[in-house]
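sry for the spam today, last one i promise. struct tokens for design, 96 residues
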């Protein structure tokens, strides 16, 4: 499989140290060659951190605007169907 022109352009930007745009991020997200995207990400990781690898465990992102967590400003929230449920703006979405 040959590399897409968009991915090739992004690879050139990454290697020259240029900042990626939102459009570049969307192109990476939509890129069907996941192995090539992963290889590019690994190239950046190795350049920044050498042989060290960091992992983030137990991260859960709530993909709804109904908060069921007991965190910060939404500590009084309850289940989505409950009488006391809180619908939050996107900026207040909880990560627990």
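last one done:
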């Amino acid at each position: 499989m040959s590399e897409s022109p968009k991915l090739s352009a992004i690879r050139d930007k990454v290697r020259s140290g240029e900042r990626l745009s939102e459009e570049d991020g969307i192109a990476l997200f939509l890129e069907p060659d996941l192995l090539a995207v992963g290889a590019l990400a690994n190239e950046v990781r190795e350049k920044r951190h050498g042989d060290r690898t960091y992992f983030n465990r137990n991260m859960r992102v709530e993909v709804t605007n109904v908060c069921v967590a007991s965190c910060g400003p939404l500590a009084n929230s309850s289940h989505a169907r409950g009488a006391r449920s809180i619908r939050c703006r996107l900026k207040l979405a909880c990560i627990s």
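The chain has two domains: 5-49, 57-96. ok im logging off now
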